[in-house]
Design a protein that fits this description.
Elements (H helix, E strand, L loop, with lengths): L22 H32 L6 H37 L14 H6 L7 H11 L1
Helix pairs in contact: 1-2
């Protein structure tokens, strides 16, 4: 069975009379977030298989060092993805609570375009920009 690829899910096109975060929009983002999560989990499982299969003894010291560096890079990537899975789960919980799509700072609607680009966004672009400026 092929794993769904969240990037292949077409962007949501709301109608003019449609309410923000109505049932169709909510379902679209649930599907998108779950597909993304499934893809990340699948990638993690393939990394485990890859490391287990390729960790056999390598005779050459240089080859072994290269292999270990590749494994370390893969594991760092998977650790970042593990944190992303947690953020996706938090976002799915926000959907269940009815809070998804609204800025956690000011309460304004987060644009559909922003949510398509970053489905885990929890701030509108204005609040995110201000927060990033404060970080510098």
């Amino acid at each position: 069975m092929l794993e769904p690829n969240f990037e292949n899910i077409p962007p949501y096109q709301p109608t003019k009379s449609e309410e923000f975060m109505g049932p169709k929009q909510v379902e679209h983002f649930k599907i998108k977030l779950n597909a993304w999560k499934d893809q990340l989990i699948s990638d993690a499982e393939s990394t485990i298989d890859h490391i287990q299969q390729d960790s056999t003894q390598v005779a050459d010291v240089n080859d072994r060092a290269t292999l270990e560096e590749e494994f370390a890079l893969e594991l760092r990537t998977r650790d970042r993805e593990r944190k992303l899975i947690s953020k996706i789960e938090k976002t799915l919980h926000a959907i269940e609570l009815g809070d998804y799509g609204y800025c956690k700072t000011c309460g304004a609607e987060i644009s559909i375009v922003r949510l398509e680009a970053r489905p885990t966004a929890d701030e509108c672009i204005d609040c995110k920009t201000i927060a990033e400026k404060k970080e510098v």
